[in-house]
Amino acid sequence: MTFTLPDAADADSPLKAEELKVLRGQYEKEGFYVGVQTKFNYAWGLIKSSSRNEQQEGVRLLSDIFRNAPERRRECLYYLALGNYKLGNYAEARRYNDLLLEHEPANLQASSLRGLIDDKVAKEGLMGVAILSGVAIAAGVVGGMLFRGTKRR
After folding, report:
1. How many CA atoms lie within 13 A of 39 on its CB side?
2. Which residue would you say has higher pLDDT here, 146 or 117?
3. Residue pLDDT, tens place only, 43-96
4. DSSP labels for 107-147?
5. CA 82, CA 101: separation in Å to the nearest integer?
6. First-to-last C-alpha distance (Å) of the chain
């Protein structure tokens, strides 16, 4: 059975509140015996959300599916990578995405997601360097002012 994976950009378009409500209703209706597909659909709807708490719940549900439904692992890898990417957990996103690419090196969606993850890590790395540089400069200025102040006395 072949599944078509969505582009990473699709994760940035939240479902309408009514659509998510339908998925939640189906998930809750099935209760303890919730089907894997129902849980998966609800998890994907949560990951697409703009609410961090809902995204975290979506990742939690997908992790559960990954552990308990071996036939859905390949599909879960990509969605777990997307969910963690949206949450800013880039190391986890990369880990799941790389596992998928080990099995499917020609997967275009996973390759695209790898580029997005790498770009975010590089951008945040540069931002971290800029912040550290700013702190170092500020510390130098303050240190210089203190040093001059003690010399004058």
Report:
1. 20
2. 117
3. 999 999 999 999 999 999 999 999 999 999 999 999 999 999 999 999 999 999
4. -HHHHHHHHHHHHHHHHHHHHHHHHHHHHHHHHHHHHHHHH
5. 14
6. 81
φ/ψ of residue 134, rounded to 5: -60, -40
- Model pLDDT for residues 66-76, shown as the tens digit of each residue: 999 999 999 99
Reduce the DSSP state of residue 49 to 3 states and report it.
coil
- Do 44 and 79 touch, CB atoms closer than 8 A? yes
What is the per-residue DSSP string for 14-44? PPPHHHHHHHHHHHHHHGGG--HHHHHHHHH
Cα angle 7-103-36, degrees, rounded to a multiple of 5: 65
